[in-house]
Design goal:
Elements: H1 2-24, H2 28-34, H3 39-70, H4 76-84, H5 91-104, H6 114-141, H7 144-150, H8 153-165, H9 172-190, H10 202-234, H11 239-263, H12 270-275, H13 281-308, H14 311-318, H15 324-333, H16 339-384
Helix pairs in contact: 3-13, 3-15, 4-6, 4-11, 4-13, 5-11, 6-10, 6-11, 7-15, 8-9, 8-10, 9-16, 11-13, 13-14
Length: 385
């Protein structure tokens, strides 16, 4: 009788142990529900769509901005205004995202105080306005091909600011990228007479060069500070939070451009500028309109990449249009692509590929560490069970 009782107790213990181990292990149905098979494909589809939007919008906006100047436009503040004035296009997207989140989330996430948000919007908005103004000066005084090549220094500044603000490590590939991009820009700086078709004085060329370099540095600082703000202040990098940090600073930047337009007196020349525009008044308005829309399409792609991947990745992708814009400038604006520009282009692409390869290595290392941690966790789980 005692043996029978002991055997029954032993069997009960074994069954309880099996039930506890099964309860600790997620079921196949739960795992499949948590990680649907099409999730990776949808993620790649969204990222690809954002990349196309960023590259197409940025290339179109740059070419249209140059077209505005070539056909008779001369207002720097108007060219700056259209870079941020298209932000209302993003309002329906923000409304849709917030409504969809409110229908699924019962407890809304905590937000910083209103005063904190106002300070952030004001700071980033004024920084964006200054950055856009420098880009406008650069695009006015430089050929599109030269302008786009100098913009490649954005990657070098991005690596520097990411090292200081976002704790990114300097490696041999990053350093190689910095050297190549610096040499690429320096070639264009010391050889301003390489394009004889621009009819721009040496002094204006230097101003355009310095403004473009300054704009590239400011934009890299903008993205690095934005990433730091998401981590330290907002503490979330959801798509609606990224949209907020695009829409409201763009509104502040647009207001600053309106003030600059009236303070500089350029608003007085706009009627005559529209009247004397080579393609006519309708073409004048449509050029400015589609420039604004193109910049917002680019912003949607940029914001989507920040939300899905990181601001660093979005900055890298935005420079992929580097080889495309000079070629398009040669086709549409007949820019001269001489030997210096070709060498500068090759060095810039080399620096870009070196930069991208380093991030590929970082991604491989991160994935291997994740797989090793998962194996360790599964091993410890089997040991305890």
């Amino acid at each position: 009788m005692e043996n029978t009782t002991q055997e029954m107790e032993l069997q009960i213990r074994v069954e309880n142990k099996e039930l506890n181990s099964q309860s600790r292990m997620p079921s196949t149905a739960t795992t499949q529900q948590r990680l649907p098979p099409y999730k990776d494909y949808m993620w790649w589809f969204r990222v690809s769509l954002y990349i196309v939007s960023l590259l197409a919008g940025q290339s179109a906006a740059t070419l249209l901005g140059r077209l505005y100047y070539d056909k008779g436009g001369n207002s720097k503040w108007m060219a700056t205004f259209v870079q941020s004035a298209g932000f209302p296009v993003l309002l329906p997207i923000l409304l849709y995202v917030q409504l969809s989140k409110s229908s699924t989330n019962n407890s809304p996430p905590k937000h910083p105080s209103i005063s904190t948000f106002l300070l952030l919007f004001l700071f980033f908005g004024l920084l964006l306005a200054g950055d856009n103004l420098m880009y406008s000066y650069g695009l006015l005084y430089l050929p599109v091909s030269t302008y786009s090549l100098i913009c490649a220094t954005q990657l070098a500044f991005n690596a520097l600011f990411s090292f200081v603000l976002n704790s990114q490590k300097f490696t041999a590939y990053i350093f190689n990228s910095l050297v190549l991009l610096t040499v690429s820009a320096s070639l264009l700086a010391v050889h301003p007479d390489s394009d004889s078709t621009t009819k721009i004085s040496k002094g204006k060329y230097i101003i355009g060069f310095l403004c473009t370099v300054g704009a590239s540095a400011t934009y890299s600082l903008f993205l690095s500070l934005l990433e730091l703000t998401f981590k330290k202040v907002i503490k979330r990098e959801t798509f609606d939070a990224v949209l907020l940090m695009q829409i409201y600073p763009s509104f502040v930047a647009t207001c600053a451009c309106v003030v600059g337009l009236f303070a500089s007196g350029e608003w007085k020349t706009l009627p005559s500028e529209m009247k004397e525009y080579e393609k006519g008044r309708v073409s004048y308005v449509m050029t400015l309109f589609w420039t604004a829309v193109s910049w917002q399409i680019s912003s949607v792609g940029l914001l989507g990449l920040i939300s899905e991947v990181s601001s660093l990745f979005s900055n890298v992708i935005s420079t992929i249009s580097l080889p495309a814009i000079p070629i398009l400038a040669v086709i549409f604006f007949h820019d001269k692509m001489d030997g210096v520009k070709v060498i500068s282009l090759i060095l810039a692409i080399w620096g870009f590929l070196s930069y991208v390869y380093q991030h590929y290595l970082d991604d491989v290392t991160a994935k291997s560490r994740t797989s090793m941690s998962n194996e360790d966790a599964s091993g410890s789980f089997l040991g305890t069970s």
